[in-house]
Amino acid sequence: MMFELVDLEEVRDEMISEIQSDIDQGKLYISERLNGSGAEIYPELLLDAAKEGDIESFTSALGMNFFNSTYLRKKPRGGFSSVKMPHNANATLCEGEFNRFYIRAVCQKAISQDQQFITVYRARSSSNPRIESIRLENQQFQALPLLQDLQESIGVDSALGLPPGPNSGMSIKL
């Protein structure tokens, strides 16, 4: 399932800058699902993908060998249980985080070109799209508030709801 980020080549410098900024400020999201080696190599692999790769190359580089075999999942009635790591944990993490930095980069580019709005689009096809995703398609958002929201919402869903959760397949374009 290819992820088509239509402005990727135009915004690589901004992506690298956004990633480096989070690294420098010590706020780069490092998933608890990564093992020690994964947590150590993750920033470098993310930067490499931003420089000359894409979501697929990032996912390939951050293989499942960089993840713990289990993780703790919250139980509905409180407490936690240990469950097997999903076989696609790397794809979910790589897609989500690469897309978040791509969105931040598109916002930066739009702002630098005095373009106030960006447009939401489906970057990966889905046979069963979520209602939230369908509602967002072709909507316009102000670039500056979206950028600020994503810069502050590290490792959690953003207040503006973009991107709309893991595996949504949604992104933005200039």
Overview of the molecule:
- The structure is a single chain.
- The protein is α+β, with helices and mostly antiparallel strands.
- It has one domain (8-173).
- The protein has 6 helices and 5 strands; from the N terminus they run αααββαβαβαβ.
- It has helices at residues 8-24, 36-52, 55-61, 89-112, 131-136, 143-152, and strands at residues 70-74, 80-84, 117-122, 140-142, 170-173.
- A 3-stranded antiparallel beta sheet has the order 4-3-5.
- Strand 1 and strand 2 form a beta hairpin.
- The longest helix has 24 residues, at 89-112.
- The radius of gyration is 16 Å and the shape is globular.
- The two termini are 23 Å apart.
- The model has no long low-confidence stretch (mean pLDDT 93).
Query: In angstroms, what is the radius of gyration?
Result: 16 Å
Count of DSSP E strands?
A: 5
β-strand percent reads 5-15%
The geometry reads as globular
Mean pLDDT: 93
| Helix and strand composition category | alpha+beta
Main β-sheet: number of strands, strand sense, barrel status?
3 strands, antiparallel
Helical percent range? Answer: 40-55%
SSE order, as H and E? HHHEEHEHEHE
SS element count, helices: 6
Please mark out the parts with pLDDT under 50 across 5 or more consecutive residues, or reply none.
Answer: none
Order of the strands making up the biggest sheet: 4-3-5
For the record, give the distance between the C-alpha atoms at the N and C termini, rounded to a whole number.
23 Å
- Our count of domains comes out at 1
